[in-house]
Amino acid sequence: MTTRLAEAYIDDGYVVVPELINEDEVASIHNEIDRFRGGDYPISNSEDNSELDGILCVHFPHWVSEPTLELVTHPRIAAVLAEVTGAHIPFWDGRVKCMQSMLFLKPPGFPGQAWHQDERFIPTRDRSLIAAWIALDDATEANGCLRVVPGSHRSGRIWPTASHSEPDEFDPSDEAQGVDDGSEILVEMKAGDVLFFNGYLLHRSKMNRSVTTRRALVNHYMNAWSNLAWTADADRQIDPATHDHRVIVPVVGQDPYPERGIAEPPSEVFLRPWKSDMDWGAWDAARDD
User: Which of 253, 8, 33, 18 has its CA nearest to residue 134?
Assistant: First the structure.
């Protein structure tokens, strides 16, 4: 039976579940940020961990951080995913897998990201991509909370994108064109709240204009039965009809393809920097939020 939570997710493309993560669990990720900064974990594209003060995001922290992995598979998050991820798919049995985590730091003065859809970066075959956006600080309008367009996921359309003209507001990622800003909803959250939203949902965030950070852990999941035609390697060519990315974490139910195996993740993470002179050309496959 379709639950009330699933109905809201199917209709609006997002749902917020308050107080899903407790204070101790939020604090554990705060501590992990300090460990990344202190050099406890290997970083592939930096030899100086002090640069963590100048980046937007740590990509794939769950590859090396056990507390982060624990939130990827958190029972309360998994329970929501089991209700909503494939609620639009007939005969879906509730199985869910995770392929990505991102730890956003967003200090004061850092930019947001213009209108976009996550499916542009992580394409699924059945519209089942879903983000779990875990607030690690209170997310407010002032510090750059997420903004969404309710219902914009329904058509399954990937909107055309082009460069934007607001470099002080947003990072250099392209912007979805023709979005009606007047239809956006601000999603302000308390630390420990979790926003679940569909991969086709239009969303954005603006610059952090406050004096506080707006940290968030964002994990991406999908229906475990669906092949994942995605690679974190921007230079690798794949066949979207047959490719199934296997650096995954089963989250709800067993992996339905045990014969394919689950690939071992790299033992290091990489950083998404924010510098005025940075080259964004190699980051297209990894940008988000």
Answer: 18
CATH number, domain of 123, equals 2.60.120.620
Residue 119 lies in a domain: yes
Model pLDDT, residue 54: 64
For residue 91, is pLDDT > 70? yes
Contact 127, 157 (CB under 8 A): no
In a domain, 87, yes or no: yes
Domain range for 260 = 4-278
CA 76 from centre of chain: 18
0.85 cut: is pTM over it?
Answer: yes
In 10 A of CB 1, how many CB atoms? 3
Q: Which residue type is seen at 261? A: G
Are 124 and 222 a contacting pair, CB within 8 Å?
yes
Distances (CA, A) of 10 to 33, 56, 135, 155: 34, 30, 22, 12
